[in-house]
Write a sequence for this structure.
């Protein structure tokens, strides 16, 4: 069953730029400069999206000198994927269940 935390994360990941950021961070830890280069987004816009991802618990930060690196929290994504897998399994099991109309 999806929780309110899950639905919040789904809403966060529904944004195309945030999904692109998460996809990039799934491959490597990147700083804002790298993400600007990869996405073509403005730095301020990107920083706002990173803040949303951080507040949702999807990414962690790692200071490195004057730069901040971002890395994906795979356990958060895996947890959400597991809930979707549970929903799919439940749907498979219940495929023949049909409630009669009154």
């Amino acid at each position: 069953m999806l929780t309110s935390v899950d639905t919040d994360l789904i809403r966060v990941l529904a944004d195309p730029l945030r999904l692109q950021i998460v996809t990039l961070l799934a491959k490597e830890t990147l700083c804002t400069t790298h993400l600007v280069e990869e996405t073509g987004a403005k730095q301020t816009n990107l920083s706002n999206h990173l803040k949303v991802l951080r507040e949702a618990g999807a990414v962690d930060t790692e200071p490195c000198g004057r730069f901040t690196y971002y890395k994906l929290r795979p356990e958060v994504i895996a947890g959400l994927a597991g809930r979707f897998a549970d929903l799919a399994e439940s749907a498979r099991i219940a495929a023949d269940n049909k409630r009669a109309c009154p």
